[in-house]
Amino acid sequence: MTKIIEPKKQRNIFSRPSSETGIWSWITTVDHKRIGIMYGYAAFFFLLVGGLEALLLRIQLSQPDNNFLSAAEYNAMFTMHGTTMIFLAIMPISAAFFNYLLPLQIGARDVAFPRLNALSFWIFIAGGLFLYSTFLFGTAGAPEGGYLDEEVSRLASAPNGGWFGYQPNAGLKYSPGTAMDYWAIGLQILGIASLVSAFNFITTILNMRTKGMRLMRMPVFTWMTFAVSFLLAFSLPIIAIALFFVTFDRQFGTTFFLTEGGGDPVLWQHLFWLFGHPEVYILILPAFGIVSEVLPTFSRKPLFGYPAIVFAGFGIAFIGFGVWAHHMFASAISPVAQAGFGLSTMIIAVPTGVKIFNWLGTIWGGKLTLNTPMLFALGFIGMFVIGGLSGVTHSVVPADTQQTDTYYIVAHFHYVLFGGALFGIFSGLYFWFPKVWGRMYNETMGKIHFWLMLIGFNVTFGPMHWLGLQGQVRRTWVYAEETNLGFWNLIVTIGAFILAVAILVFMANWIYSRRKGEKAPFDPWDARTIEWSIPSPTPVWNFSKAPEIKSLDDFWHQKYGEDEDGRAVRREGTDELLLKLEEEGLNPDEEIHLPSPSYFPLILAFGLPFLGYAIIYKSVPLALVGVILLLIGGFGWGTEPLEEEFETSEENPDAKESSTYE
Amino acid sequence: MQIKKFLKTRHLMLCSFLFITACIENAPLDSLSPAGPYARTIDDLFWLTFWIAVVIFFIVQGALLFSVFYFKDSPDKPEPKQIHGNNFLEILWTIIPVIILASIAVPTVRTIFDLAREPEDALKIEVIGHQWWFEYKYPDFEITTANVLVIPEDTPIRLEMWSNDVLHNYWVPKLNGKRYLVPGQKTYLNLHADNAEEFWAQCGEYCGLSHSKMRGRVLSLSQSDFDSWVMNQQKNAANDLDQNSLAYEGQQVYLNAGCTQCHVIDGVWDVQGEQIAPNLTHFGIRNVFAGAALKNNPENLTKWLANPAQIKPGTFMPNLELTEREIEALIEYLGTLK
Question: Which of A32, A627, A640, B337 is most buried, judged by most C-beta within 10 A?
Fold first, then answer.
């Protein structure tokens, strides 16, 4: 019998919610694992939406001079595809991993600020819904003085200035209506979510590590979380300011980016990419972290050059702030700036190369288990190398002036962000599936998913290289038949549908395995890091007692020693150790105090969209609603009792089940 | 020279062993078919980088695939040696990429400055971006034209460019890389065509609804043809049409239906309205119109004049609700503007 502490029920309005099951337990949760799971599902939903938008784009481009979509619809779709995939899919999926794994990898019970963590999640949801409400309420149209032949459909009432929102095209004169305001303010709200979680993770990593978890003993995934958090903290304020400028230009008649008022459209490019390039590393570094966990586990070897990989990660993050103008080589910048940013872009290839060579060093001489997470991690290396090499051709400035704004660039960054980030994410989703759900995924379906995705991916994005080099310009709704680009565009569209099938296989596997998958042992992969030393699925309290870390890959070293040849040898008594760990993990012998759930992060978060609508519609009542929600949220947050009076109850023997998320 | 020869066969090489006949034949916007010295310098630099990348690609992917097949788990395989790293290797694979990159960096920086330099004795032409067409002015000859840039062959051209509204990006892939057109400041781009030939141009930067239809042509002519083109362009349009002709009726439509609000025809209507639209003085000799989205023929003109926004969504040209007869007359008149 275990003692679990439960807060007393109180009738105070500031009392904390206490449901442990059902929808309210999820809505009010501050548990990093539940927040991580919710991040994952929400982000995956948006990934599907963004994928659907991409399919519409591909149908339109499957033949020359097609008119499946109107120009207005096409422009809205590519804008929303980019914005969705970056801000609502890849970033939050990474956040899902951070949330779920970070405390587990450093031996903590939760993040440093659990309620702040819930706030990040709900602001992300509020921002996503706000942005997507443009399909219901937004308006768009021809530039001032221009003519449209047809009504602007609902599909075309979304932001249409590109995810990069170049000024002055995204300004009020050339993008009238409210759609671009939804974009600017939506991103502003989403930025708050990321900033809040960045500080939370930095604090957690610095302060919440368990005994013996020195910085240089942290798993690489944790290191990459740390790097990404710094990137977020330093780059998001830049885009926040730039988006405020845009909102001011559009709403209040300022002219930060408008030439006629003395503003400068090139300034927006600088500000946007000063954020936008670190953003690329925000998207890719988590995947670097994931494969750095997966490769050693399935090679049964330690990560080759751990310090080099860690420092290379931080090198990339640091240099990533000094390469932004390579997005602007054809823009109004001087040859000196072109040369400088060309060189810095070449330099960033060096730490990236170091990482790739170290991963190869990790699998070299190993004993490779080619299961789904490993296949995705290996596929990640292969695809990312292609994206990295095409990236080097962009640093050659004169060549880039031919390539920029063509499908060659589209190919390049999809090899980095899809072949790289998303392959890494899928690797991680399969790898930690048993830890999160306590069940195994279906290996056959996983492998089908991998091969379909690898083939579909290359059929989709491979031909884009030569389509771009041979003249297909980005963001074009139609292309002329005389350009002779039709054939490969059709192939690309077919590839996109193969990818869609691959995603369906993944979903089927997920749904099936969640319910019917085999029960997972707590260490199914014979893994290395301490999140595998606790039961699967992870108990609410994570660690029944705080682990003490003696080395890098601590859990592995508890299980394995080395013989005189340096080969791994399973220690005697490992089986008993594992039995003991599972027993202990499920039955904590001390009283565990977990942070109590709270309503207030949710209330606070949903004040923000109201303020957004208030700005767009210049409405005082909406502003009041927003401010009141913020005040209630903030005041309640500050005054709700931190420590409840606790009563101790004997745990129900079935609590093992109820403590997991079925 | 060996290398040059090797590079000459590059298209064949590329197609056969990497892309498997992937290269598109006769792509008018092909950046891999340079037709002038600027584009050629860029092309050489690209292929240098490309071949280095190909070598690295095969080394890395080879090592990856070799590892996968050779180190794959099998039942009798012993536990691997626990190697944590190797400082020598770390230094090696830091320094070798640096050396490779330096070998690309040197020609890159040199080419950047070469391309930016203003060529001596260049013909100066102004390029002005509008939503969604390019306007060209020849300050030396006092010519204003649109959509088709006419240049003399084998002569360096210096384009001085800006935008009248949003960002545009001027691209003639066979002659040089891209350069933005920015409102409120000037940018420059050099062109140089080896031979008399027609090239395609395209706006690269997303510039609103009809970005994809912001296209262009560059017509390079022999020096004598160019000289006579200039002579012709400097003439005003004829204003002495036979009053019983269909063309005269078309001119009246031009003068009265609202066209003159935006379009100028030198010698017929010289007052530029607030909204700038292509100068039509020599419309008849341009082979494309409407931002080079359409070929200049009566069929396309009929479609365009009947409803411009259907061809180019967002266009600033209104539907003037012209009758069939008016359209027919207008097309006849436009055809006389040679």
Answer: A32
Contacts of A438 (CB under 8 A, 6+ apart): A519, A520, A535, A536, A537, A660
ipTM for the predicted complex: 0.93
How do strand B288-289 and strand B294-295 relate by DSSP bridges? Answer: antiparallel
**CB–CB of B307 and A485 under 8 A?**
no
- Lowest average pLDDT, out of A47-51, B17-21, B227-231, goes to B17-21
For B123-232, CATH number? 2.60.40.420
DSSP state of B118: P
For B188-197, how does the pLDDT look when each residue is reduced to its tens digit (9 = 90+)?
999 999 999 9
Closest by CA position to A542, among listed A553, A556, A530: A530
Res. A591: pLDDT tops 50: yes
Closest by Cβ to A259, choosing from B171, B183, B309: B183
Mutate to test the interface with A, among B24, B44, B176 (most CBs of A within 10 A): B24
Strands B168-171 and B197-203: antiparallel
Query: Domain total for chain A?
Result: 1
The length of chain B in residues reads 338
**Token code pair at residue A134:** 């443009």
**Which of B82, B83, B93, B159 should one mutate to test binding to chain A, selecting the residue with the greatest count of A CBs within 10 A?**
B82
pLDDT at A564 over 80: yes
Structure confidence at residue A254 (pLDDT): 94
Residue with tokens 């910085």: A215
Domain that holds residue A391: 372-522
Q: Is CATH 1.10.1270.20 the classification given to domain B2-72+83-116? A: no
Q: Are the Cβ atoms of B82 and A471 closer than 8 angstroms?
A: no
**CB under 8 Å to A116, separation ≥6 — which residues?**
A196, A197, A199, A200, A601
Residues of B in contact with A376 (CB under 8 A): none
Q: In the structure, what pLDDT confidence band is assigned to residue B76 with cuts at 50, 70 and 90? A: confident
CATH superfamily of B246-336: Cupredoxins -  blue copper proteins (2.60.40.420)
Nearest by CB to B24, from A70, A334, A470: name it. Answer: A470
- How far does B206 lie from chain A, in Å, by closest CA? 6
